[in-house]
Amino acid sequence: MLHSLDRQKIILDNLKNGSVTSINHLIKSTNFNQSTIRRDIKVLENHKKVIVVRGGIIPVKNIEIDPINIENLNEKQNIAQQAASLINDHENIIINGGTTCSLIPDYIDNKNIKVLTNSFSVATKLINQNIKDVIIPGGKIYEHNSLILSPFNFDTIKHFHASKLFLSCRSLSELGLLEDDENLVKFVTGLISISDEIILLVDNSKFYKQDGSFIICPLSSIDTIITEKLDEKVNQLKNNFKAILTTN
């Protein structure tokens, strides 16, 4: 009879890279019974070697964005810190993917919150920060930006309700928030529909960049924007949203 550590190693070896692995797949590939696999997965989860999501398991591995390679890192860290300060105990929040949003968990300390995220990097950081209630949808992991995406995955979390949604974008113009991935736009649009307050994190370099083929939402959908500065031209974009400047 295999030792539990040997079983857990076999389970880890049979997890699919880049996607969620189902319990049924593990049963077929390991020949372990369901109760044994579920028990070992719970141990692996407690040791932060896997993340259990709806539909299966994802191995925890280092696919986080290297901070050294983040453009305008200092500005984005200041924005993320300001965003984290808006999070209150016992809130249900959503943290969307993106380099700036991926920094928010670095500034969350000992909060009793529930977090939905489509960023594997954010989920891993939150778990390492001992945030117990982390929800991620199923789908494929895009390792270049640490996102979990599927054209069908919004159905799995459409009944979630968030007091705040923190999101970023590829660029911002009078057209609204722009991105370059259609599946990401569809998913974020769904997140907006289940959130009370939409908080945009964006560094000044993204204003009027016109980078992105798809509109996430118009500016009128944004409640709060956090950035380091608003020059005269950018200030004209202000609609009815509140601006929080990190340089104040």
- Average pLDDT over all residues: 81
- What gap, in angstroms, lies between the N and C termini? 64 Å
Please tell me what the overall shape is.
elongated
Counting DSSP H or I runs of 4 or more residues, the number of helices is 7
Q: Please indicate the count of domains.
A: 2
Compact description:
The protein contains 7 helices and 14 strands.
Polypeptide structure, described:
By secondary structure, the protein is α/β, with parallel strands linked by helices. It has 2 domains: 4-59, Arc Repressor Mutant, subunit A, CATH 1.10.10; 67-245, Rossmann fold (3-Layer(aba) Sandwich). The chain is 27% helix and 23% strand. It has 7 helices and 14 strands. The protein has helices at 4-13, 23-30, 34-46, 73-84, 120-128, 182-193, 232-235; strands at 50-53, 56-59, 92-95, 114-117, 133-135, 140-142, 147-149, 162-167, 171-173, 176-179, 195-201, 214-217, 224-227, 242-245. The strands form 4 sheets. Strands 5-4-3-8-11-13-14 form a 7-stranded parallel sheet, with helices on both faces. A hairpin with a 2-residue loop joins β9 (171-173) and β10 (176-179). α1 packs across α3 (34-46). The longest helix is centred in the first third of the chain and has 13 residues, at 34-46. It is elongated, with a radius of gyration of 19 Å. The chain starts with a helix and ends with a strand.
Keywords:
single chain, 248 residues, alpha/beta, Arc Repressor Mutant, subunit A, Rossmann fold, 2 domains, 7-stranded parallel β-sheet, 3-stranded antiparallel β-sheet, 27% helix, elongated
Blueprint of the fold:
Blueprint: H1 4-13, H2 23-30, H3 34-46, E1 50-53, E2 56-59, H4 73-84, E3 92-95, E4 114-117, H5 120-128, E5 133-135, E6 140-142, E7 147-149, E8 162-167, E9 171-173, E10 176-179, H6 182-193, E11 195-201, E12 214-217, E13 224-227, H7 232-235, E14 242-245
Parallel strand pairs: 3-4, 3-8, 4-5, 8-11, 11-13, 13-14
Antiparallel strand pairs: 1-2, 6-7, 9-10, 10-12
Helix pairs in contact: 1-3
